[in-house]
Amino acid sequence: MELNGFVFLPDGRGLLLDPQTYQNILNNSVVFSLENENIPEPQPDNPLPSLNESILKELNDEEISDVTLKVGESLIHCHKVVLAARSEFFAALFSHSFRESREKTVEIKEFSVENMMLLLRYIYSDSEPIEGNQISDLLHMCDRFSVASLRARCEC
Length: 156
Prior knowledge:
- It contains eight helices and five strands, in the order ββααββαααβααα.
- By secondary structure, it is of the alpha+beta class.
- The strands form two sheets. Strands 4-3-5 form a three-stranded mixed beta sheet.
- The protein starts with a strand and ends with a helix.
- The mean pLDDT is 83.
Protein backbone atom coordinates (compact mmCIF):
# COMPACT_ATOMS: atom_id res chain seq x y z
CA MET A 1 0.00 0.00 0.00
CA GLU A 2 1.47 3.36 -1.07
CA LEU A 3 0.85 6.13 1.48
CA ASN A 4 0.42 9.49 -0.09
CA GLY A 5 -0.83 11.87 2.55
CA PHE A 6 -0.55 12.93 6.13
CA VAL A 7 -3.17 14.97 7.98
CA PHE A 8 -2.63 16.55 11.40
CA LEU A 9 -5.53 16.35 13.83
CA PRO A 10 -6.22 19.11 16.38
CA ASP A 11 -5.47 16.77 19.29
CA GLY A 12 -1.89 16.31 18.11
CA ARG A 13 -2.32 12.98 16.37
CA GLY A 14 -1.77 12.49 12.65
CA LEU A 15 -3.32 10.29 9.94
CA LEU A 16 -1.36 8.50 7.23
CA LEU A 17 -3.66 8.19 4.22
CA ASP A 18 -3.69 5.98 1.16
CA PRO A 19 -3.59 7.80 -2.21
CA GLN A 20 -7.35 7.52 -2.94
CA THR A 21 -8.45 8.78 0.49
CA TYR A 22 -5.89 11.56 0.33
CA GLN A 23 -7.17 12.63 -3.10
CA ASN A 24 -10.79 12.59 -1.84
CA ILE A 25 -9.87 14.80 1.10
CA LEU A 26 -8.08 17.26 -1.19
CA ASN A 27 -11.04 17.34 -3.61
CA ASN A 28 -13.63 17.92 -0.86
CA SER A 29 -11.69 20.33 1.36
CA VAL A 30 -10.61 23.92 1.46
CA VAL A 31 -6.82 23.91 1.49
CA PHE A 32 -4.91 26.88 2.82
CA SER A 33 -1.31 27.60 3.66
CA LEU A 34 -0.21 28.44 7.19
CA GLU A 35 2.80 30.20 5.73
CA ASN A 36 2.27 33.55 4.11
CA GLU A 37 4.98 36.08 3.45
CA ASN A 38 2.46 38.94 3.79
CA ILE A 39 1.56 38.12 7.37
CA PRO A 40 3.79 40.07 9.77
CA GLU A 41 5.63 38.32 12.56
CA PRO A 42 3.60 38.39 15.78
CA GLN A 43 4.83 41.08 18.14
CA PRO A 44 4.28 40.99 21.87
CA ASP A 45 1.73 43.61 22.93
CA ASN A 46 3.72 44.52 26.01
CA PRO A 47 7.38 43.56 25.68
CA LEU A 48 9.07 43.04 29.03
CA PRO A 49 11.31 45.89 30.13
CA SER A 50 15.00 45.24 30.61
CA LEU A 51 16.44 44.81 34.08
CA ASN A 52 17.94 48.31 33.89
CA GLU A 53 14.58 49.82 32.90
CA SER A 54 12.82 47.97 35.71
CA ILE A 55 15.28 49.11 38.36
CA LEU A 56 15.33 52.70 37.08
CA LYS A 57 11.54 52.78 37.34
CA GLU A 58 11.87 52.21 41.11
CA LEU A 59 14.03 55.30 41.63
CA ASN A 60 12.13 57.86 43.71
CA ASP A 61 9.28 55.44 44.49
CA GLU A 62 8.36 56.37 48.05
CA GLU A 63 6.37 53.18 48.70
CA ILE A 64 9.24 50.70 48.39
CA SER A 65 12.28 52.84 49.14
CA ASP A 66 14.29 52.28 52.30
CA VAL A 67 16.41 55.44 52.30
CA THR A 68 15.76 59.06 51.38
CA LEU A 69 18.36 61.45 50.06
CA LYS A 70 17.69 65.02 51.11
CA VAL A 71 19.21 67.28 48.48
CA GLY A 72 18.53 70.90 49.34
CA GLU A 73 14.81 70.97 50.09
CA SER A 74 14.03 68.00 47.82
CA LEU A 75 13.63 64.38 48.88
CA ILE A 76 14.71 61.55 46.59
CA HIS A 77 13.55 58.07 47.57
CA CYS A 78 16.16 55.38 46.96
CA HIS A 79 17.17 51.83 47.81
CA LYS A 80 20.20 51.06 49.95
CA VAL A 81 21.00 47.87 48.06
CA VAL A 82 21.17 49.67 44.70
CA LEU A 83 23.21 52.57 46.05
CA ALA A 84 25.60 50.29 47.93
CA ALA A 85 26.07 47.98 44.96
CA ARG A 86 27.10 50.83 42.67
CA SER A 87 28.86 53.27 45.02
CA GLU A 88 31.67 52.51 47.45
CA PHE A 89 30.68 55.61 49.42
CA PHE A 90 27.13 54.38 49.99
CA ALA A 91 28.32 50.81 50.65
CA ALA A 92 30.56 52.08 53.46
CA LEU A 93 27.92 54.48 54.75
CA PHE A 94 25.25 51.78 55.06
CA SER A 95 27.47 49.00 56.37
CA HIS A 96 29.21 50.80 59.23
CA SER A 97 27.81 52.43 62.32
CA PHE A 98 27.24 55.82 60.76
CA ARG A 99 24.10 57.67 61.77
CA GLU A 100 22.78 57.35 58.19
CA SER A 101 22.87 53.54 58.36
CA ARG A 102 20.39 53.63 61.25
CA GLU A 103 18.33 56.57 60.07
CA LYS A 104 16.37 56.65 56.85
CA THR A 105 17.71 59.97 55.55
CA VAL A 106 21.05 60.99 54.06
CA GLU A 107 21.59 64.70 53.65
CA ILE A 108 23.55 65.86 50.62
CA LYS A 109 24.38 69.55 50.64
CA GLU A 110 26.98 70.19 47.96
CA PHE A 111 25.10 69.14 44.81
CA SER A 112 21.99 70.29 43.00
CA VAL A 113 18.91 68.08 42.75
CA GLU A 114 19.31 67.95 38.96
CA ASN A 115 22.90 66.69 39.16
CA MET A 116 22.05 64.25 41.93
CA MET A 117 19.18 62.82 39.86
CA LEU A 118 21.54 62.47 36.89
CA LEU A 119 23.98 60.51 39.05
CA LEU A 120 21.19 58.39 40.53
CA ARG A 121 19.70 57.60 37.12
CA TYR A 122 23.15 56.36 36.09
CA ILE A 123 23.53 54.34 39.30
CA TYR A 124 20.11 52.76 38.76
CA SER A 125 20.36 52.14 35.01
CA ASP A 126 24.05 52.14 34.02
CA SER A 127 23.06 53.92 30.82
CA GLU A 128 22.17 57.54 31.47
CA PRO A 129 23.14 59.80 28.55
CA ILE A 130 25.77 62.37 29.46
CA GLU A 131 26.12 65.76 27.84
CA GLY A 132 29.41 67.61 27.57
CA ASN A 133 28.41 70.41 29.94
CA GLN A 134 27.63 67.88 32.71
CA ILE A 135 31.00 66.12 32.75
CA SER A 136 32.76 68.46 35.18
CA ASP A 137 30.00 68.21 37.78
CA LEU A 138 29.70 64.45 37.29
CA LEU A 139 33.44 63.91 37.74
CA HIS A 140 33.27 65.76 41.06
CA MET A 141 30.27 63.64 42.08
CA CYS A 142 31.99 60.42 40.99
CA ASP A 143 34.90 61.26 43.28
CA ARG A 144 32.63 62.21 46.18
CA PHE A 145 30.43 59.10 45.94
CA SER A 146 33.06 56.67 44.57
CA VAL A 147 31.27 55.74 41.36
CA ALA A 148 34.22 54.45 39.34
CA SER A 149 32.22 53.18 36.35
CA LEU A 150 30.72 56.61 35.66
CA ARG A 151 34.07 58.30 36.21
CA ALA A 152 35.65 56.07 33.56
CA ARG A 153 32.77 56.84 31.19
CA CYS A 154 33.15 60.61 31.71
CA GLU A 155 36.89 60.43 31.06
CA CYS A 156 36.49 58.79 27.65
